[in-house]
Specification:
By secondary structure, the chain is mainly alpha-helical. It has a domain of about 25 residues. Helices cover about 75% and strands about 5% of the residues. A hairpin with a 2-residue loop joins strand 1 and strand 2.
């Protein structure tokens, strides 16, 4: 006879699930805060100061360099999250196996 699958409540209260959620929060919260701080720095600096108006090289100002760096920052964060999510997927698979 096949064992009964665990309910969501049982899975959500398991130590493995709690460890997964804790690890995700410890990663996602600082990364999200960094992203928003970095993202909103450009409009704040361009609106309330002239620090980014100075030329970096030739006619290109620091505002353009900062704006371009936001694309790089987004790509880097996406790559980091993709790699980190592989670890989460392994943890999820372990939780799923124990639930059946």
């Amino acid at each position: 006879m096949k064992a009964k699958a665990k309910s969501y409540h049982e899975i959500a209260n398991s130590p493995k699930f709690k460890a997964l959620m804790s690890r995700k929060k410890r990663f996602l919260l600082p990364v999200s805060l960094f992203f928003f701080a970095y993202y909103f720095t450009l409009p704040l600096l361009t609106s309330y100061s002239t620090v980014l108006n100075r030329p970096a090289f030739g006619p290109v100002s620091w505002a353009w360099i900062f704006a371009f760096s936001q694309f790089i920052m987004t790509w880097v964060l996406c790559i980091v999250y993709s790699r980190k999510s592989a670890q989460y997927d392994k943890m999820i698979e372990s939780i799923r196996e124990n639930a059946m």
